[in-house]
Amino acid sequence: MDDEQKAARTRELARQIWEAEGRPDGHSARHWHMAERLVAAEVEAAQYDQEASR
């Protein structure tokens, strides 16, 4: 996943988190941070899967 894909995925997840929490105001930084952590976990899992399949 390149940087552009990571940014797009982070935006998507942050929006989903915001919506799941009822669209609260003033929590965008927390939602963004949560999304970044999820994307990092997805990237790590994909790398692990690639290495395991070799």
Automatic annotation (TrEMBL):
It comes from the Bacteria. InterPro entries: DUF2934 (IPR021327). This is DUF2934 domain-containing protein. It comes from Stenotrophomonas aracearum.
